[in-house]
Amino acid sequence: MHVCADYLIYEEEPINYSDTRPNDPVAKIVNEVNSGKVLLNTTDEKSFVLSFLDRLNIPVSSQVLVFSRTSFQNDRIRPQTPRAIYYSENYYIGWVQGGDLEIIAIDPQLGPIFYRMNTPFTGGSEIKLKRDAQCMNCHGGSKTDGVPGMLVRSVYPNYFGQPILSAGTHLTDHSSPLNERWGGWFVTGENAGKRHMGNAYFEEGKSRDASLVKDFGVSLENLEDAFDVSRYLTDKSDIVSLMVMEHQIMAHNAITKAHLNTRRWLNLDAAMAKQVGRPEGKISDAVLGYIDHSAKDMLKIFLFSNEINLEAWGVEGSEEFQCDFANYSRADQSGDSLRDLQLLSRLFKNRLSYMIHSSSFEYLHPIMKKAFYRKLWDALLGKDEDGIASHIKDKERARIVSILQATKKDLPNYWKSSKP
Questions:
Q1: Is the predicted pLDDT of residue 26 greater than 90, yes or no?
Q2: Are the beta carbons of 322 and 395 closer than 8 angstroms?
Q3: pLDDT on residue 229
Q4: Cys-Cys with 314: which of 28, 185, 232, 344 at CB 3.0–4.6 Å?
Q5: Number of folded domains in the chain?
Q6: pLDDT of residue 394
Q7: 187-198 burial string, b = 16+ CB within 10 Å, else e?
Q8: Which pTM value belongs to this model?
């Protein structure tokens, strides 16, 4: 690996990221397939991927397509053969035509685990799953805040999908302007306002910038004119799915960082307590301060504090994805959910991340979770000094509290009968 040593703290005690056996279902599924307990469709590569997604409960409508060569299977990726990505709350699956499957499975204690899996069409009759340390070159350093994480990049790709690095790149999150998003990606659907960077490739200009060579258009219903879509599971790379995925990756990264850092701080603090004779179980004020600050950073992401204003930039995407996404909603008695999309001035109607219902959040270290719930409650009441929820109006705050009171069983007692 070629990751700066400063960012390898997750390889030390108590995390031991690479040496710890993950507790996610992917390995079990592969073992069941090889033993014949679970059958996947091996008619062809496309059918195999479809049956694998179905086994993991990942909707086909989540498909997004990236043709920039930003994967370890670069030799197979180009505008004519983009990499397909499918995702759910617990998995991200990358499918490169004729190549291995790239799998990210979210482990409750370690965060994202990066796998490479052959298929019956690329590696013999037996399916082999292995953790890929090569992924950590990009997914375990400064770009992911020093912990294992995911990222979405926007680049200026040339005809072959190779990024024109001299023209610059962007890391994408929910604060990114739309005109800086999706370079090297295909995008179906519509958005108002400035043109995004997707559906186009470029060539390097004389001043080392990028000049447009091919533009497939910005308001595409499907991608039939861009490449042979019959080889893929759907003919779309939905704009709403892209935006949801970008937020979800932010939330996953925030949970992983908060959880792993809390484990590390408490481990160091316990060792220090023995040296100075502090009572066992008593946490130092310094570590409580670190946890409090980390909870605040996580809360900013969960409350969409820096989300770009989509006013007059509304987006319109696939109804199929929106229906599939809504199928996992947890609603209050009024039918309000954290998965309700707005798509006009902002992505979601109720600006608290639906990832608060995820298994990643469920297994968040209890001390960090306690600090997060306190920060969230104070923010919704307007009692926090930072005004983290100042962009959220009273009615929306009340809906958020109502949804959580109806759907979260682990809320502290002060949440259960109070209203902001």
A1: no
A2: no
A3: 97
A4: 344
A5: 2
A6: 95
A7: bbbebeeeebbb
A8: 0.93
